[in-house]
Amino acid sequence: MTILDGKALSNKIKDEVKVEVEELIKEKHITPGLAVILVGSDAASATYVASKAKSCKNAGIYSVVHEMPDTITQEELLETIKRMNENPSLDGILVQLPLPKHIDTTTVLEAIDPLKDVDGFHPYNVGRMVSNLDSFLPATPFGVMRMFEEYGIDLVGKNACVIGSSDIVGKPMASLLINAKATVTVCNSRTKDLKAQTLASDIVIIAVGVPHLLKADMIKEGVIVIDVGINRLDTGKLTGDADFEDCKTKSSFITPVPGGVGPMTIAMLLKNTVKAAYLRETRESK
Ligand SMILES: Nc1nc(=O)c2c([nH]1)NC[C@@H]1CN(c3ccc(C(=O)N[C@@H](CCC(=O)O)C(=O)O)cc3)C=[N+]21
């Protein structure tokens, strides 16, 4: 059994990004810039945003966190995005999710310039991703794919089960696996026999937000378990959607929580920001 060490791998990627940023500065005189919009005062969101800002700073990426109260109107938010779209020194724009209920998330995400869409949530990038064209890839599934690559995990012909069909994780994850020639099943809360699906799978990727949903009796010997869940228990401890101690007894590879997929998400966001900075000249000639 091998633990997929997302923490260590994310540090390696962050070092790569640092070098890429130095090159951009030296050769093109561009310092990559990321704008993060944070609406409201959710504690978890604020923590993630602070962590993103810190990682940017360490990598030499300029970042601004634009905080807005949850009383803001949708129009004010759209106006802010428009200004950021037009600001040439901001290469990436990220609107931290979830947004307050009175704001329509789709409208907001569609307002971001697709060439600055470092989250890869704009329909333009979603469409390109599904069509296997070059695009910004959503950071979490992108990070999972990078983990497979680094640990030499071959996806061709594998049965992969994605549990959870969100726009942010499940759907893009399924797309990337399909493009990698895996055979993909996507399950959701209405799936009739989840255990039948997981037992038939070589790879199980779970992203549902239910602590310890995946147990050893649901997986076959030698399975690869990717746990995207991050749940804070009453004790304050973080735990995943898989019962790690139980599932590891049958897994060939498994990600821990914390220290698995989470840190990869931030590393791939930095990668996407560098990619956006390389597009700066393309944007300006449009
Ligand atoms: N527009 C947008 N883009 C996002 O990418 C986005 C978002 N909204 N909203 C919230 C989710 C969540 N997310 C995480 C990033 C890092 C960790 C991470 O680094 N987790 C650490 C632990 C962190 C801790 O100790 O709390 C770990 O798993 O080891 C987790 C979760 C990005 N998200």
Automatic annotation (TrEMBL):
Homodimer. NADP(+) binds at G164, S165, S166, I230. It comes from the Bacteria. Its EC number is 1.5.1.5, 3.5.4.9. Residues 138-278 form the Tetrahydrofolate dehydrogenase/cyclohydrolase NAD(P)-binding domain. Keywords: Amino-acid biosynthesis, Histidine biosynthesis, Hydrolase, Methionine biosynthesis, Multifunctional enzyme, NADP, One-carbon metabolism, Oxidoreductase, Purine biosynthesis. NCBIfam families: PRK10792.1 (NF008058), PRK14186.1 (NF010783), PRK14191.1 (NF010787). Residues 4-119 form the Tetrahydrofolate dehydrogenase/cyclohydrolase catalytic domain. This is Bifunctional protein FolD. The keyword Ribosomal protein does not apply. InterPro entries: Aminoacid_DH-like_N_sf, NAD(P)-bd_dom_sf, THF_DH/CycHdrlase, THF_DH/CycHdrlase_cat_dom, THF_DH/CycHdrlase_CS, THF_DH/CycHdrlase_NAD-bd_dom. It catalyses: (6R)-5,10-methenyltetrahydrofolate + H2O = (6R)-10-formyltetrahydrofolate + H(+); (6R)-5,10-methylene-5,6,7,8-tetrahydrofolate + NADP(+) = (6R)-5,10-methenyltetrahydrofolate + NADPH. Pathway: One-carbon metabolism; tetrahydrofolate interconversion. GO terms for molecular function: methenyltetrahydrofolate cyclohydrolase activity; methylenetetrahydrofolate dehydrogenase (NADP+) activity. Catalyzes the oxidation of 5,10-methylenetetrahydrofolate to 5,10-methenyltetrahydrofolate and then the hydrolysis of 5,10-methenyltetrahydrofolate to 10-formyltetrahydrofolate. Belongs to the tetrahydrofolate dehydrogenase/cyclohydrolase family. The keyword Transport does not apply. One of its GO terms (biological process) is methionine biosynthetic process. GO terms for cellular component: cytosol.
